[in-house]
Task: inverse folding
């Protein structure tokens, strides 16, 4: 990236960092059981809700107890269960029609980040009925209060239950874009470990590594605060300690609760301090090939961290000390290497591949442009890259460049 481009990016990032204390960030109120949801709705006079989930979760019966509890409480529940792994504009518009047809007054997001992103976008369209999602993308485009939104994460990864962000895929252009506005933060986060028990090991692994990516990218960026640094370090410590237990024993209540807590903390950290190029590249891969976001992040994370070089050694060393794999007396480069090695070893032990299949060389320049447009100038990354420079991250992740 040339000097003018770097200067512009850093000026924008500095402005956002200085504004953090006065921006309307808030933490959702935490509930610990889905059974608490009906009483929250009753207390706020809500008699009709839209439940946004996916077909797998509903067909597996995971939403049934909540639907039954709502019915018992006299609350009408309209269900949209067609959310895709990377939610699309079409998903949002379909769910919006159901919201209106059911005269809904609140929204419950039940699932992973995809369901929460879809639910947030539905809320945005409810309060902006004459604007398409394309007109709401970007930063601070939504200023109206959304309908009451409760988020029930069934994965411990995205942290979407705490964030200002929704990520939506354009069906036609086949790329993802982000909507970043404070009203998108859910009012309640329901951290109930029981709804994560049936999460398959592979998804437990990749969603957990997604949360670790949030914590690391928030921590190594240039817009951190004391609060976000503490949250990021605590999240990383919880993940390194508990992710393999959750992976090998899905009904380990302690590990599952710890992972939900970690995802929540990491989400709160990156809401204020943002993410980086790992996420921007992963979003473009998801939009182009529908590669699951957590998988893309897990593969890209050690590659991008190593490429940043000395710019991240000190902070990665601090994180390595926090998670208990390095000593404070060691050189920063050693601590950083241990943290990157830890990520690779976690991936390997949880059978996450080192590379991503299906990336086509001819698609890389377009995806890199999308990634650069998303990240620059907003993401306060340790080292700035333009679209041409970002292309190497796709090639690092290609199957033919690294083998199996």
Result:
């Amino acid at each position: 990236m040339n000097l003018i481009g770097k200067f512009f990016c850093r000026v924008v990032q500095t402005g956002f960092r200085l504004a953090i204390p006065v921006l309307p960030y808030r933490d959702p109120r935490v509930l610990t059981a889905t059974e608490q949801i009906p009483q929250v709705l009753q207390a706020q006079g809500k008699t009709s809700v839209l439940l946004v989930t996916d077909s797998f979760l509903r067909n597996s019966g995971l939403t049934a107890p909540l639907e039954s509890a709502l019915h018992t409480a006299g609350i009408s529940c309209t269900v949209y269960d067609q959310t895709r792994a990377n939610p699309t504009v079409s998903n949002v518009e379909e769910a919006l029609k159901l919201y209106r047809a059911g005269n809904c007054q609140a929204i419950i997001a039940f699932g992973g980040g995809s369901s929460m992103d879809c639910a947030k976008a539905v809320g945005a369209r409810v309060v902006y009925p004459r604007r398409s999602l394309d007109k709401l993308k970007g930063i601070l485009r939504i200023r109206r209060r959304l309908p009451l939104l409760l988020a029930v994460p069934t994965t411990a990864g995205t942290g979407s239950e705490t964030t200002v962000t929704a990520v939506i895929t354009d069906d036609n252009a086949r790329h993802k874009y982000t909507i970043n506005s404070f009203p998108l933060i859910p009012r309640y986060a329901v951290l109930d470990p029981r709804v994560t028990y049936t999460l398959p090991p592979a998804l437990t692994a990749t969603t957990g590594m997604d949360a670790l990516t949030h914590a690391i990218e928030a921590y190594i960026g240039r817009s951190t605060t004391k609060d976000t640094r503490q949250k990021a370090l605590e999240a990383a410590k919880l993940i390194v300690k508990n992710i393999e237990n959750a992976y090998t024993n899905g009904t380990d209540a302690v590990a599952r609760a710890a992972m939900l807590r970690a995802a929540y903390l990491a989400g709160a950290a990156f809401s204020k301090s943002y993410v980086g190029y790992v996420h921007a590249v992963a979003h473009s891969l998801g939009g182009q090939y529908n590669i699951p976001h957590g998988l893309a992040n897990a593969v890209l994370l050690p590659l991008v961290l190593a490429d940043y070089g000395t710019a991240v050694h000190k902070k990665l060393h601090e994180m390595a000390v926090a998670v208990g794999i390095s000593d404070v007396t060691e050189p920063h480069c050693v601590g950083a290497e241990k943290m990157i090695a830890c990520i690779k070893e976690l991936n390997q032990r949880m059978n996450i591949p080192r590379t991503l299949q299906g990336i086509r060389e001819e698609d890389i320049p377009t995806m890199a442009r999308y990634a650069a447009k998303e990240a620059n100038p907003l993401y306060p990354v340790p080292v700035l890259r333009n679209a041409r420079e970002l292309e190497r991250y796709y090639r690092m992740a290609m199957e033919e460049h690294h083998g199996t």
The first helix runs from residue 3 to 19. The beta strands are 29-31, 48-52, 76-80, 106-111, 138-139, 148-153, 165-170, 175-180, 188-190. The radius of gyration is 20 Å.
